[in-house]
Structure formats: structure tokens, C-alpha cells
Amino acid sequence: MTERLRLHLATPVDGASLVAFRVAFGLAMAANALRYEAKGWVHDLYVAPELAFPFVEGLERLPGPAMHGVFAVVFLSAIGIASGVAHRFCTAVFLVAFSYLELVDRTTYLNHYYLVSLLAALMLAMPLGRSGTLGRRRIGQLPRWCLWTLRLQLGLVYVFAGLAKLRGDWLLRAEPLHTWLSRYAHAPLVGPLMDDVWLAYVFSWAGLFFDLFVVFFLLRRRTRPLAYAAVVGFHAVTALLFPIGVFPWLMILATPLFFEPSWPRRLWRGHAPPRIAATRRLPLPALAMLAAWFALQALLPLRQHLHGGNACWHEQGYRFAWNVMVMEKTGLLELRLRDAEGGETRLAPRELLSPLQQRLVPTQPDLIRDLARQVRARFEAEGYPAPVEVRADVWASLNGRPSQRLLDPNVDLAADAALPEQWILPLHRERPSR
Amino acid sequence: MRAVLVLVFGMVACGESGASFDVPALNANAAALVEARYADAAQELSSLSSAAEAFCAAPTPAAYATLVARLEATRRAFKRAEVFAFGPYTDSPWRVGPDLDLWPAEPDRIEAFLASDEPLSDGEALERVGAKLKGLPALEYLVHGQDVTRPFVSSEEATVAFQENPRRCDYVRAVVENLGTRLEDLREAWSPEGDHYALELSAPGSTERDIYADAFEAASALFEQMVFTIENVQQLKIGKPLGLRTQGRPEPDSAEARFSERSALYARETLAGARALYDGTPDAGQGIGDWVASRSPELDTQIMAAFDAAEAAIGDLQGVALAQRVSEEPEIVMTAYERLGNLRQLLVVDAAGLLAVTVTFNPTDGD
């Protein structure tokens, strides 16, 4: 069985769709980097904030000009990926630079940027620079595992995004879509429609079925045209309605990977290279690495369930789990400091955080804890009698529920010992009272 | 792009529709409220100018008392307009706000300027000086401040001080005149005869400035401005003097109007201004509260009650200088702080979540 799988995965297939994906991916990422600069987001999100919340302790933001430089590196390496020249070098540089931007601050985490890093990591392992590049324009064949690896990765995103929607709020209350769609209630003609809850239910259930099953329809030749039309329609609508940036376009560009591998040749009527039988098998270590990769990809989204309760509320294991657009959460935070001599100080996020951080931090327990620790360090450094205890008075609302305390206000968050379960309060109002 | 969406969905829109809140009406009403608020301020400022002229022409305790009363009325009018401290108030090329009301006053600098031989012939003489030397806080110090540490204890004492230093009256008149000029700049920026900033609210997306993409964005900005104003009242006007930023040590000097001893009054007026945006105008104009009520009447009721409670708690602070309250009766100041906190919680967490407004702007791609 393993032998047959190794042979099957090593069998060459037309590399045209992979080359098309590589070009589209590179151009989309280059455009995204430009967009960040053009809109001033590099400064607003990576340079201006006083505090950062890195995924990895010790990973620090570079000085302002260097952060702009990182985006320049992302842009140039993305262009390199599109061109195919020095593929592995460009992809490695892109992966490091882009992932650095993702890891250096949790407040800028986005599911689709995580996907970009994953796709870049997979592309790094693939021989995508062999053909269809600026230097070697003729497109040859590539091993089948390249195609199926990307398909599987994309498939996991859709399926887990669908599983994440199997929640009461999504299915039974059509939230948060009802709230979000009502944003357009004032629009001419369409306004009243957008404010009607039945439309939110239609969108919610359609979105669920789309995410859960579109991959399977894309894989079948007979249903593929309709499925791709659904992909384009679904993502175009989400792009128009919600500020989700490059993600819809990335998926529209990526899902043709589910087509026949030679599909791009129809566009320029090129001839497919002759079929070549596999002469060797995929090396066992490579197969093992792929298996490990996808095992990890399958397990990571599930870890949120280890914590029990509503993951949208406690957000333990919430990231890297394809919880895409499943919550509208608001919060209000005040930090209460008590120094060793009993002096009490209160701090509002506005004094410490950037506008984006002010919106995100009060709703995410781990960010609040990190903020508490950074505040303790800062105030002790400023001469407040140590140890400074930092507690959080934080209220949050999830998907239209009445507000309730998110954290235990009696726990010193700056102390090291407490486990999340000891300071994150459970969501006690599962059903909204209004 | 959104126009395409509107057309596409417009073609399929049919059947029964829900009762939607009229967001554009809220914005238009807010724009009208801005105009009304600044018109009030201009009227009060005109009366203040007359009172200042009368007092300086014949400094008497009675004229001083009139000047004090007109100054209070003017500041109250400006405080009720504080919720609209955005756009021309804060942004280039207008940025009028600092010249109007950059508080608290810095008495040392004002005294130094008063003692200098810098010209004070008219309002224009103050064009080139820093914002801390003009505007309502400086005016309040000039009218109420005996010296950098204490206010006048009587109208008689104040009148004598003005008589002994005629330059003080010149300064008052110059500040009042400068305030009038700046306020006119502000009104012109909002008015159709000027830069017509009101269009950003009443017809968003139609101007070259393109501040807000559509009516919802404009309404969200109004919501955010209301919340921001209430936060300022809680954090800066109440919490800071109480010492909540300084290890519990009260900071009476940070009170907004410590020389006139009207800090609590002005805090209450500021809150009333925010509430006017929530309630809407008496002539049936839509307010943010109507928007909330269209989603949750229960939440609207809670918010109205929280406004009442906060206003009452700040009202309890009046009668004694806030600088004195924070030292002698910190618990009632704390009550006001906490009531304002409850109000913010209902607005920032419950209402913002319900309406999907972004309380701080979110520029990036969120999912």
C-alpha cells in the first residue's frame, strides 16, 4: 500500500496548474505588500504601537525603517516567486519574512495569513522552479504530490472552516452574520433585505454547506464547473460585504488547483508535455514528512476542544484553527495596578495600545495577560514599588449576548502561576436575554 | 463595488422586509445638532464679549459677577458641543480645537505672558502664541485666578486685581475676540458657505475628502465619538483628579476648571452633550438611542438608566470644588467614576456588539 502510494505521488503530472498557482500566489502577495504600504498599515500596525504581543517570547519588532524593509523583502521575494527565478531562495526568503510579520504580533494574526505561510512552506519543498519560469518558459511535468499536497492543504482549510461553523450561534441564531449584514440595512433597495434575519440564516447555512462540501465537488469532474462558480460567487460576495482583504481573491486564485493539471493550457492553447511514467517512488522520509505535516494540520484545529466551553469566548486554542468569521466580540478593559506599598493605579487601554490593539486586546484573554505582564515590567522599571500586581476588570460580549466578565478581577495576571482556567471565567449566558 | 452588490441584491429583493433603522437620518440629525451647538456657543460667546467689554470699561463687582456668569454659560455651551470635537476641531487644515479649549490651564505660563510686554491689542495679537495662552481655560484663569495656586475669593478681590493691572483686561478681551474668530472658523468649516464638513455626515462618500465611505461608517464614527467623549469624562475629568492614574494620590491640579471650581458642572455638561447625540433632538431627530432601541429596546432602557445614574452621580459632585472633593470625599467621586464605567460598558460592549460598530477603527483585514 505504502509502495503504491509512493509511486502514485511521484508520478509526474502536467505542471501547468502548479505554475499558474505559483505565479498567481506571488503576484497576489506582492500586491498585498504594496497595499500595506499604500494604506499606511505598516506604520500603523508594526511601527507606531508602543507594545507588541509576539507569539514567540523574545521575538521583537525591528526599528521602523527595518519594518518597512521587511515588507520590501516580502514584496521582492513574492515577485521572485511569481517569476520562478531562484524559486527555493525566493520562497524561503518570503516564508521567513512573511512569517516573521505574523509571529511578531498576535494582534495582527489573521487566518488567511497563516494559510499564506503554510502554502509558502509547502511550495518551498516543491521543485516549482524547474519550468514555467522567466528563464525556462516551457512548462514541463511535476510530481503529483506537489498538486495533491496543495489541494489537501486548501481542502483542510475549507473543511475546518465549515466545522467551525457547527456552533449554535451560527446555525440557530445566524450570528454573527445577522449583525454584520444589518450593517447594510440603510443601503438603497437592498437595505431591508439585508436586515431580515432569514437572509442571515440563508447565508449562514449556505456558508456552512459551502465550506464543508465544496472541496468534494471541486474534486469531481462533473460538479467542478458549478463548484468553482460557487467558489467565485461565495468569495466575491464575502469580499464585497466584509473587510477580509486578500483572502477571497487568494482562494479564487488557488482553487483552480482542483482542476485538471493542464487547465491553463486551454488559455493559450499550449500542448501538454508527453506523459512520463514514474521511474522512482517518493522517498520514504518525504512521505513521512508529508504525513506528519498533515497530521499536525488535522490536530491543531482540534486542540481548542481540549479546553471545553465555548472557544469563541475563552479563545484557548482558537488561533491556527480556521475559526473564520464566526464571532463578533466586543470588550472593555481597565487594568488595576497595586504596588507593594498599596498605591493603586488604573489604566485604560487607550493609554497603552494602538487603535487596532485597543479593539482586539480587551476580548482576548491571553493578550490581556501579556499586557498585564508588560505593564508590570514597565511600571516597576519606572519606580513603582515592586512587585506590582495587575488585575483586569474586563467585560465582553459574544455574538450579541449581554456583556459579562471575561476574567476573574481578583487574579493577579502579572503573576506567573495561574492557569488560564483559573482566571478566564466561563460564558455563563449561553443564550442571549434579548 | 458595493454599488454592484446593491444592484444585484436589489434585483432579487422582494417580499416582506424588516423594519430598519434610518442610519442616514441619524447622521443628518447629528450634522444639524453640530450646527445648533456651535450656534449656541456663538451666542453665548457674544454675550460674554459684551460682558467683558462692560466690565473692562467699568470694573465693578457687579460687572465682574456678570462676566463670571457669562463665562460659565459660554463654557457650558462649548462643553455640550465637545462630543463633536472631531473633523475641523482636530484635523488639518482647520485644527481649531486646541485654540478653543486645551485644558487644564497652565497658570505659570499665563502669568508670565501677562507680565510680559507682548502686544495684547486684539484677538489677532494671540494668533501666534501657543494654545495654552488662549482659549477658554486661559480665559477662566484670567477671570478666576488670584495667582497660580488659588482663585479669587470674592468679586471685590477680583475687581481690585483687574483695576490694578489693566493689562489683565486687555488679555481677557483679546482671548474672547480670538475665541470668536476661532469659533467662526469652526462654524465655517462645517457650514455650506464654507468647507461644508457636515456633508461628511449627511452625505458620506460624496465629497472629495471622502472621510467616510458610507452612512454606516459615518454613524459608527459618531458612536465612537460619543463613547470617546464619555471616556474622557470618566478618565480625564473625574479619574485623573481622583488620583486613579497616580497610585491613588489625588491630582487636584488636573481638574478641568479648578480656578472657577466648576469642573463637575462642565463634566456634567460634556456628558449631557454626549447624551444629546444618544437621545436625538427634541424635534423628533433620530439619535443613537433609537438605533439601539431598533435592535434591543431593553438595552436602550438600560443605557438611558445608566446615563441618568451617571448624570446624577456627577451632579452630586457639584457645590464643592472637585479639587476639594477628591481629597475629602473621594468615595463620592469614585461613585461617579464607576457609574460612568457602567455606562461605557453598556455602550462599548453591549451596544457596539449589537450594532457591529467598531469602537476603535480597524484598518486591517479581519477574520
Describe this structure in words.
The complex is a heterodimer of chains A (434) and B (367). Chain A is α+β, with helices and mostly antiparallel strands and 434 residues long. In chain A, 52% of the residues lie in helices and 7% in strands. Chain A is built from 19 helices and 6 strands. Chain A has a 4-stranded antiparallel beta sheet with strand order 4-3-5-6. Chain A has a two-stranded antiparallel sheet with strand order 1-2. In chain A, α2 (16-38) runs antiparallel to α13 and α6 (111-124) runs antiparallel to α7. The longest helix of chain A is centred in the first third of the chain and has 23 residues, at 16-38. The termini of chain A are far apart. Chain B is an all-alpha fold. Chain B contains 15 helices and 2 strands. A two-stranded antiparallel sheet of chain B has the order 1-2. In chain B, α7 (155-164) packs across α8 (166-190). The model of chain B is unreliable at 1-18 and 359-367 (pLDDT under 50). Classes of the chains: A alpha+beta (434), B mainly alpha (367). At the A-B interface, α3, α10, α12, β3 and β4 of A face α1, α10 and α15 of B.
Pair with the biggest interface = A-B, 71 and 57 residues
- Tell me the number of strands of chain A: 6
Cα shape of chain B: globular
Q: Give the number of DSSP strands of chain B.
A: 2
- In oligomeric terms, what are we looking at? heterodimer
Binned strand content of chain B: under 5%
Order of helices and strands of chain A: HEHHHHHEHHHHHHHHHHEEHHEEH
